[in-house]
Amino acid sequence: MKVTVNGEPRELPEGTSVAEVVASVTAARTGVAAALNDEVVRRSAWEATTLRDDDRIEVLTAVQGG
């Protein structure tokens, strides 16, 4: 299936979860948020939330700086 991850098209297998996409984008364990089709997905739902063809997912990572 075709999805858009952080603005880039990707081909992913059917049944791919939000958790799998997040893991492919960042190894960070904290400070990470995910939005599926402009709706924030709670971390507790990442494993159970699967993507569908033409979905858009944004994975955001908090960055500290000064």
TrEMBL record:
Domain of life: Bacteria
Pfam families to which the protein is assigned, alphabetical: ThiS
InterPro entries linked to this entry: Beta-grasp_dom_sf (IPR012675), Mopterin_synth/thiamin_S_b (IPR016155), Thi_S (IPR010035), ThiS/MoaD-like (IPR003749)
Protein's UniProt name: Sulfur carrier protein ThiS
Gene from which this protein is expressed: thiS
